[in-house]
Amino acid sequence: MSSPANLFFPFAKTIALPIYRLSNTLIFPDPRESDTNGLLAIGGDLCIERLLLAYSQGLFPWFGHSDPIMWWSPIERALLLPGEVHFSKRTLRAINRIPFQVTMDTEFEQIMFQCSEVPRKGQSGTWITKSMISAYKDLHRAGYAHSVEVWLDKELVGGLYGVSLGAAFFGESMFSLVDYASRAALNALCSQVWKWGFHFIDGQFPNENLDALGAVTVPRDTFLDKLAIALKLPTVRGKWDFR
Q1: Of 113, 90, 225, which Cα lies nearest the Cα of 159?
Q2: 155-165 and 60-61 beta bridge pairing
Q3: 82 to 25, 45, 46, 86: CA distances (angstroms)
Q4: Contacts of 202 (CB under 8 A, 6+ apart)
Q5: Do the Cβ atoms of 49 and 58 come closer than 8 Å?
Q6: Looking at the DSSP assignment, which residues form a beta bridge with residue 72?
Q7: CA-to-CA distance for 194 and 86, rounded, in angstroms?
Q8: Which of 91, 92, 147, 160 could potentially form a cystine with 111 if both were Cys, beta carbons 3.0 to 4.6 Å apart?
Q9: 8 A C-beta contact, residue 192 and residue 222
Q10: Which bin fits 109, alpha (ψ -120 to 50), beta or left (φ > 0)?
Q11: pLDDT tens figures, 81-95
């Protein structure tokens, strides 16, 4: 068998580190070889097998409408850990006061669509393209991608989605049409996955919102070590519900 280095083609150089172009072979470069922004490779496809392989190696796709598929491995990772996530007293009061109803895996496609449509501060577009929605719908049908929906007066007002492997949940995106709806979704997700014994929720790139929730920022090597341990446990596959 060819060595892994022969299965990729250099695409560009940033600070002496190559960005790889993927071949049709289902294999990725070492995630530690990403550039300083976290970009590791371009190309490939979004089939279930490649997505699962990517997440199992700590990679995720992120690209715009006019871009090729881009695969990322940030040099630092934001993780939400059991017992260390905190919501402000004001947020908890609001979640308890507002009559939200929270469900899981009942409107996966709609959650992705809303995440792609809701305007975000500092962003003029979305990375949740039609091809991404189609690919993650396949992951959802296969029992690996999941959504949390928040309802108010029978209207969908917030939610989130992500991917689950072993004892790891990889958060992808969330949205809120009313105050506190996305926080209600995250609070519900945390309660359920900690009950199942999950080790962490991956927030991908560190940011102020995650910091405010108590996320810890860890070096990539630490994240990959934690991921390897989490993947030793069985995946909670199939339709999720609160139990």
Answers
A1: 113
A2: unpaired
A3: 37, 33, 31, 10
A4: 77, 78, 79, 168, 169, 170, 171, 223
A5: no
A6: 39, 60
A7: 14
A8: 147
A9: no
A10: alpha
A11: 999 999 999 999 999
Residue that is written with structure tokens 């308890």 in the block:
96
Identify the bridge partners of residue 162 per DSSP, sorted by sequence position: 146, 171
Tell me the CA end-to-end span of the chain in Å, nearest whole number: 46
Average pLDDT of every residue of the chain: 90
Query: Whose structure tokens read 């991917």?
Result: 163
Which has more confidence, 10 or 44?
A: 44
Residue range 149-182, pLDDT digits in tens: 999 999 999 999 999 999 999 999 999 999 999 9
Q: Widest CA span of the chain, in angstroms? A: 60
Q: What is the pTM of this model?
A: 0.90
